[in-house]
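User: Please predict structures.

Assistant: First:
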Amino acid sequence: MKPIPTIPTWLVLGISLVFGLQYARAESAGSVPAILEQAALARDWKGVVQYCESNPKCLKSPAVRALLAHACLALNQNDKSLELLQSIGDEAKRREWQRWTQALVKRLPKSAVARYFAADAALRSGRWQEALAGYDAAIRLDKTFAMAWNGRGVAHAYLGDFRAAKRDLKEACRLQPTFADAYASLGTLLVAIEAGPGSLQSYRLALQKSNEFSLVKIGIIIAGLGKSQDAETLAAALKGLLAAAESPPVSSLACANLESMGVRSKGHASQKNSPKSGMSLETRDMVHLDGETLSRGLRRMSTNELRSALDRVRKNADHSERWAGIWSSLNISVLGSGMDLTKWADNSWRDTAGWKKAERLIRKELERRGADPLAGGADTSGVALDQSSGDVGAWPAKKMWFGLLPNVDLPELSVDRPAR
């Protein structure tokens, strides 16, 4: 009997090491477990969520987080979806998602879900035409796939085709009447062309489908401003945006809209920590206030509402340059509007750097105009820094995202705007 040939131990160890390194590299680069892939391809979105909850380590993979984001989107867990999509926002993670989806399409070219994922990867990188072609392929394979219609509508929007975008988004709503993001996307599309009443209606329908949708809550505020800009609406918008600015998924969006309404610090647009940094720029560079918009809104707040709102801003201002700017410009507007400060401003607030800077700036501006409200006896009603006349009916804030593309500005759409 011939002896059985043996493989040298060093060769066995070498092969094991190579395959082990390749496996580890694949895991760290974003491999997707087979059972999770199968659940996603079968559109078993609850199964995707359950697997990820039971195996949290798999979420280290950008591709797994993207799959979970789409599962949450399908299940109307919209805040969770938004956070997950934001977590794959940098270029390296987007590339990993793209590589995985391209490999999936290569293996399964007849899968509508695979085509949808590949289109999403292209959309996330701003390759609008490639995304459009991918969604086209998914819809050809399954004309009832509402998520693909929703994605194609967003791609059409960024290509500037309003009518095609609106048609696709309405079809997504028709195919899946419970799909919150389709209604939200339609609302955002209408915000882009400043169709206030229509966007408000779409956002409200989205919120009926999902109460975990901070993005839509901001959308309702923005759409409301497009429909009416009376003092009560402005006050409600300020309160809503100040509250939303403390919610991590939409904090930067809420701050951007506050800045658009006049709560603005041009020199402090970053989110870097700078405890109690105060303000260091000249008036013309630091703050632009639309006194008409901001003061009307502030005047409609009750004493307790104003105290609560400013207290939240002040606490955040201690940890963020952007919040410090919001704090300072709010103070300037209140001081310049002639409101009775004794009703809500106590001594501890006057000790903050933002308040002191506000006092100095407003004193300097009003002295230039021949009045000093801090010295007493001056009528300062209606006084504000850099008063902006603006077009009547112009939206004071219009920063918004599509749920599929957080942190991406709205597209410019060349379409005749309907009468508001």
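Second:
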Amino acid sequence: MQLDMLTYLMNLPTLLKYILIGTVVYAAFVLAKQKYDEYLFLENYTLLEDKNFEQHLVERGIDTDSTVNGRIANVDARKVKSLLLNDKDIKSLKGIASFKNLAHLYCVSNQLQKLDISSNDALVSLYCHRNKLTELDVSKNLELTHLECSANQIEEIDVSANTSLELLGVGANPIKKLDLSTNKTLEKLWVGKTQIERLDISGNQNITTLYCRQGTLREIVLPKDSSQLKALYCDGNRIKELNLASLSLLENLQCFGNELKSLDLSANLNLKELDCSENKLRRLDLINMRRLKRMSCDKNEIVELKLNGCSKLEYISCEFNKIDEIDLSTNMALVTLNCRFNLLKELNIDANHKLSALDFMNNQLDKINLSECPRLHIISGVGNRLEWVNLSNVEAKGIVKLTENSAHLKICVTEHSKNTRLKWRIDPSAQFVLDCSGYGE
């Protein structure tokens, strides 16, 4: 067949031969030019798939042709070191590979399902949380120090190559395991709302802040010594034991909503804030926590609470426990005390002159002296057996609820509080007296 065609061509008139050959040569030239133009285009331009992405580049003067036309000059892309693309309804960042010098990428709260940053080896910070990513490969981004990819749909992430990481956020993802053995420089870690059951940070002594709240954690393996951890948020998990012996710098501990039966804080004397509510604790020893300012231990089974020496303690909430006595004599900075629903028969607050809010509802008190707390403006004591309350020297201009249906209650007040007490919620049968000499008799 080829020979027949060749014979046919050879027999054509000379002019026609030249025309045919010229046509073939021209077609080849056009095809070659197209290929060359494509090559030049790809060398000089990058295709952009998402109009919202390109619109931002135009608005910021990054895309210098000032037109949303599906492309950006590579020379423009290479000038960019930082991109702020938060809340732009972007569905694709195809073309990001040409931003070779990009160091900081913020694309929070978009509609991204894929993000290929394998060519962005200059990347230092990546914030891509609140998207729809199912995977994220950061193995080529060796310069990364900040990676925040929380609130996506990522099931696995490998950060073993990212040895310079200082901040890592992978929370609110269905991640079950996380290997941090190579991330020695890590300082802040967010792993809350994941499916991780065992978190090992024993080799991460430089972590100062750990958020691992509201997940399925059963165990946290903390560093054995020299830990820099100052804030630990592990509330809302299934943790039965916390060994905090190495955390001498710890300032904030939020471990409420777990299954703790004991909590040893003897090594954590720098603690400033503690919430260990909703566990199974029976005793809590906070003696000589001289920096502690706020403490909550609600809804446990506590029968013994020791607060001696907590001289800076301003807020105490210990409601719904089984406490029958409490010593507040050294807590002179106390401003708020909530001890309702316990078994208290006595409550001495004579040393707590700064107290402004007091709730001792549903205990077993028959008397209470509030006269040493002139700043009190919120008082709630319903559900006790009160027969005598000393409110002399107390203005109490806020809410006062003391008892219900008690014909035996005597309340000692001062003459100048006459107008103020009209707002108090006290049973009409209660007697107001000005002579407090009979208090406690």
